[in-house]
Amino acid sequence: MRTVLHHLFSPNSFPIMMRFNIMFSCLVISVLCFLLLCNSSWAVEGQCLDEQRHLLLHLKHNLSFSSSSEYGVPVGLSSWDFNTDCCRSWEGVECNQIGEVIGLDLSDKSIVGSTDELASLFHLSHLQGLNLGHNYFNSAIPSGFDRLPHLTHLDLSNSYFVGQIPIGISRLMRLVSLDLSAFITRENDLLKLENPNLRMLVGNLSELRELRLDGVNISLDKERNEWAQILSSSLPKLQVLSFFNCSLSGSFHSSLSKLHSLTELGLSLNNFSAEIPEFFGSFSNLTVLELVDCGLKGNVPQRIFTLPKLQYLDLSDNPLLEGSLPEFSQDNSLQYLSTLDLSSCRFNGPIPASLFALPSLMILDLSYNQFSGHLDESTFESPPQIEKLDLGGNKLEGPIPLSIFHISSLVHVYLNSNQFNGTLELNRFEALTNLSVLDLSENLLSIDTNNINSALFPKVSTLWLCSCNLRVFPNFLQNQSRLIDLDLSSNNIGGNLPSWIDNIGNGLVFQLNLSNNSLENPIQPFSNNSFRELKYLDLHSNLFSGPLPILPPSAISLDYSKNNCSFMPSNISSFLSYAAFFSLASNNVHGQLPESLCSVGRLQVLDLSNNSLSGSIQSCIEGMGGGLKVLNLQRNRLSSTMNASLPKDCALRTFDLNGNQLEGQLSSSLGYCTMLEVINLGNNQFTGTFPHWLGNLATLRILVLRSNYFYGPVGVPQPGYRFPKLQIVDISSNRFSGKLSFEWIKLWDLMRNDKHETGLSLGYSTFSYYRDEVTVTSKGLEIEYVKILTILTLVDLSNNAFEGAIPKEIGELKALCILNLSRNALTGPIPSSIGNLKQLESFDLSQNQ
Question: Are 563 and 593 found together in one domain?
């Protein structure tokens, strides 16, 4: 090049003027090249047109924001200034060469309020791309999108739009990408497709390659079954299809196979109740397949595990989905797979070692299936780059292979709830320097915590060693500076609670579970500044005595049950400001019930059962917060009347005062508690006639009034009081009299069903014929108390003064398990209809006539 230029510009080659012109031209070209290199968009975007600038400024002026900078608008729109070029300087704005706005990105700008403020958008008629996602409109999607005929990309996702999707979107015939996803929730359908329906929406969108309607309710039953036919006939170029939680049902129609260009398919949280079709294995371009919790059943086609481009496969939470894992070829099977989630299904058989050799695998979740067999040492011989390994909740057995400690990339390890056995030296985990979560709970392991180098053991955030045959607190925990979640429950740890436990992780901030051990009080009491951030504390089933050993002021859940604590501080409510669950059940607590305890604002479950509390519950009832769902005070020494009024916003589901010394008549304000499932007032001194008004409680399933002083005829039920869901009626050992009314029996709808029913409930009792136990589970910082309510359907009217014939209609209670009519004054023959009770396990008609 240098030789050529020297020749061109030599005096003998050209006249002077010609040489000058060439030199000048080269200089201009060089400057232009420099500008193009420095700002590649200069050649694409022109200077902003005044009309376009004014439209954008008008839009900015009308918008409202939930969070703002010191200038009153989010930082993202602070660049929208009249004195700058909207095409080159304004964030989220893209222009064409002549200064027309063709792209506008207002996503995640905390925009709130009515969509009327967006009217000026529809004057930007050259828009090709529009993104309003992740804002807070809380209103309908505006009409007018058909005034933007050049749109190819439209994103309105997760912005709290509600109601019907407008018909104008169906006229955007150039659309390539459409995202109308709403936040996925089963309780509230934010958006719906009714008119236009799905067929009308996509009928003219033949260029569409990406369609996301997550959380949109497809309202018409016919379209819920025919969605596959509609999409395959209208959208031949579709590559991305995401229909999470769209109320779809039925099977997968074969027409779906026509969408051979699919790269992403997401159909989670629907109700197909169908098998995965074989043709899913023909989507050779598929990179993402998500079919979570959608009623899948049967065997998974083996071809799914040979898709050549698959990167993400999630079939979790389909408890009827089964099959086994194949051997994975090193040549062409899932070479790009990074995430495999088959958790909470029914897969079985061994886990092939070839699975762990997949070169791209980073997340593997096979938890809560029925995988079995050993993991031998060859399983992890070729260490993959796995970061999360979850094999919990299976039937794996034998020792944990030492080759697992070759996977240096591991961050999360869950081997819990299997049948692994033998002794495992915990110092082996020193090789996993990236480890953050370790769960070895509920196996047949004996964990050896000796010989651990505290300086080398990884700084974990979560350590669960439940049921690991530990006998002492592992000393290395003192140096765990990042630990926030510790579970050492159900071991054999005895002795005093160590004084250094409140310094673990600079103060545990999430969970401390030491339940089911033999721990005693610390030698030195903890200070009031201890455990200040702890959210979940479980010390139940130990040997603690005297005062409560730990009182974290920020806790959400506190369980001290099954100890020998003898008193709680009078200011206990000041430690329950954030508590939703508080249990002191089965201790030896004496004294009065603290007046403020029942009125703690966030409390949902209060269980003080099986203690020696005395005094009145009047103040507790009167001050009860509207959020309390379980009140269990059974088996104490509480006395006085219960004529206090419950709050009108009562949310109780379990009300258990069994086994006290309460007297007087029931307050009709109990009828305010319209969600009650369990009323147990047995073994007290209540009096009065049968409380017919309780029949207004549509969810009531257990009514126990046994061993009180109720009297008089039960009589004919009053209109509107039906007891439709009763499964247990125990009014034995009272003074009821009169004839047994067949009209009552005809009202017990659930007992007339020949199927046993269990349901979700809160609270618990120790009566042998039902179990209603609270189980505390956590999800982030949210807390849930859910347990299946196991009930034997029962009618116990014994030890009263009922007379007359036994109604033959009692044979219609097909679900009845226990019938006790003994020790009354009943007469006549035993109805032959009792022989129709196929579920009946026990009946007693003795000591009648």
Answer: no
